[in-house]
Amino acid sequence: MDNFFAHAWENLVGRIDGPLSFRLVLQPIMATIFAVRAGMQDARTGRPPYGWAVLTDHANRPELLRDAWKGVGRVFIFAVVMDVIYQVIVFRWIHPVGALIVAFFLAGVPYLVLRGPVNRLMRRRRVEEHLT
To answer: Do residues 20 and 85 lie in contact, with contact meaning Cβ atoms separated by under 8 Å?
Structure first.
């Protein structure tokens, strides 16, 4: 098992300076753009911060996850495709689990981390505008 994680880490680090390395910047930027848009929409509609709602609102969790997929799904799929192309170029083999892990870190994590705070910032800004 330790060997698996060591190999996975080595492959992830090796992607930094390999071919198609621009995707390591492009995909998080795209996920950030989609997260900001979704967070602003959440603030306009009065929804709670996304991450907190997913963790605590068991009844609406499937709907919240579908909404997230609509927001970041294309970026995630693009991340998987780009990583598969990278794997074919470098390894001459496709590691599907590796592609999914890389896509999750490049697209999913930035989206999940930023959507809720953007919502909070926009709601706080709205409250401050109403007070002045």
So the answer is: yes
- pTM of structure: 0.79
Place of tokens 């994590």: 109
CA distances from 125 to 32, 40, 42, 78 (A): 20, 11, 14, 33
**Structure tokens given for 62:** 């499937």
Report CA-CA distances (Å) from 103 to 30, 62, 79.
12, 21, 5
SS3 of 6, please?
A: helix
pLDDT tens series, the chain, 132 aa: 667 666 666 666 666 777 778 888 888 999 999 999 999 999 999 988 888 888 899 999 999 999 889 888 988 999 999 889 988 988 898 989 888 998 999 999 999 899 999 999 999 888 777 776
Q: State the Cα–Cα distance between residues 132 and 128, nearest whole angstrom.
A: 6
> What distances in angstroms separate CA 112 from CA 59, 82, 126, one per listed residue?
19, 21, 22
The answer to whether 72 and 31 have CB atoms below 8 angstroms apart is yes
